[in-house]
Amino acid sequence: MQDKYSSNSQIFLEQTKIIQKRKGYSGVYIHFPFCIQKCSYCDFYSIGSGIKPSLVEKNIFQTYKQELQTRLAENQYWHSYIYDTIFFGGGTPSRMDLLYLDDFIHFLKTNLKLSHDLEMTLEANPEDVTEDNVKAWQKLGFTRINMGYQSRNPKYLQYVGRYYDPDQYKNAPKILASSGISETGYDLIYGFPGQKEEEFYSDLDFLLSFRPTHISMYSLTLEKGTEYSRQVREGKKIQPEEDLQIKILESLPTIMNSKGYEWYEVSNYCLPGHRSRHNLRYWMMEPYLGLGPGAHGYDGHSRYGNARNLEAYTKDPTITKQEAADYATELFLSLFRIFAPIQIESFLWNQAEQVKSIIDLKLKAWSNRKLAYYENGIFQWKSQAVMYLDSYILELTRALEENSTLQKS
């Protein structure tokens, strides 16, 4: 890949939206935990409840309302924000009953200050992407549909316990592409045991033929506590193909750039101007309300996590684990996953001069090692940094921790 940071670096930055700290905005995440069946690799709180929706799935909307009203009553910060993103995740929120969903969206509009340019996202699985559903979602105000596609090969989907409808896996992308929804995206997974590189790129080419505005690509991982992790530990299944994952991770930036897609976060690509605002909110450490069992929230000062148990959540949705947020440490663990240019100073408004100095020295060191571009307060990783990104971020957080220890001694 040509080094865009050499002779044309300033031109590049002028053509790319620079990430800056925002104040006064928040979002809402609603966790719908129900799926047809739970995938063995998934570490999100989810419940396999079969093909036909149950009454419990409908009843959860009343609990969402109760949680929101309680949080608004007990925490003044939530009243001060303008909400410019709403994200329905899961689980499989595309299973949501349309009448209950309509009523709940109206409830959100009544109780929150929503932005005029609201981004409202629904995560969908292929089996739910029908012409009738897509028309209904559009009528409800959804601006972004993100499909959990994962793979076109049924043997890999079945290997990790994912529900698979062959007709819908073929037809759903066509329906979504012709729907008129302004933002469309897909999730793909690579590194299934036995998967070949050409199989993954065949999946990618198939989805890119529909010209989605966004695509996320994740390596299959062994998450602690998942069924897949247990099966590998017991020798019943094989670990993900790590060598393949490394090869794909290194190759994707060049391939996606050649197809006109911007690489803006480790696993995320989009057409220019089509980043996921809600996902950026997490990486930029902006506040967000989390509703539902297993959901998390951050009010700008402290974090909370809801019970990962439907019965406990339904009984009292605000019994949560809450703790103060370490702004600097948490910010840099997430902010430096971003591969778009970042206006660093805007994120350091509340930091001591010593902390700013440590960060500046570290970013200059990365730039000198040809890992990043850093000039006039603008920082951006180069593609070669991705393979050891976690260790580079650890360098920074350790430097901050050492400074904190010295200040206390």
CATH topology of the largest domain: pyruvate-formate lyase- activating enzyme
Largest sheet: 9 strands, mixed
* Average pLDDT, all residues: 92
Separation, N- and C-terminal Cα atoms = 47 Å
* Shape type: globular
- Structural class, by secondary structure, is alpha/beta
Strand percentage lies at: 15-25%
CATH architecture title of the largest domain: Alpha-Beta Horseshoe
Instruction: Tell me how many strands there are.
Output: 17
Residue share in helix: 40-55%
What number of domains? 2
Spatial arrangement of strands, main beta sheet: 9-10-8-7-6-5-4-1-11
Please count the helical segments: 15
Name given to the CATH homologous superfamily of the largest domain: tm_1862 like domain
What is the class of the largest domain in the CATH system? Answer: Alpha Beta
List segments where confidence is low: pLDDT < 50 over at least 5 consecutive residues. 1-15
Radius of gyration: 22 Å
Account of the 3D structure:
- The structure is a single chain.
- With 409 residues, the chain is of the alpha/beta class.
- It has two domains: 1-18 and 341-409, no CATH class; 22-283, Alpha-Beta Horseshoe (pyruvate-formate lyase- activating enzyme), CATH 3.80.30.20.
- The chain has 15 helices and 17 strands.
- The chain has helices spanning 9-15, 55-74, 77-80, 98-111, 131-140, 154-159, 166-177, 197-208, 227-233, 242-258, 277-283, 310-315, 327-335, 353-368, 389-408, and strands spanning 25-32, 34-35, 47-48, 82-90, 114-124, 144-150, 183-190, 214-219, 262-265, 268-270, 288-291, 296-298, 302-306, 320-324, 342-343, 372-375, 378-381.
- The strands form four sheets. It has a nine-stranded mixed sheet with strand order 9-10-8-7-6-5-4-1-11, with helices on both faces. The chain has a three-stranded antiparallel sheet with strand order 12-13-14, with no helix packed on it. It has a three-stranded antiparallel sheet with strand order 15-17-16.
- Helix 13 (327-335) runs antiparallel to helix 15 and helix 14 (353-368) runs antiparallel to helix 15 (389-408).
- It is globular, with a radius of gyration of 22 Å.
- It starts with 8 loop residues before the first helix and ends with a helix.
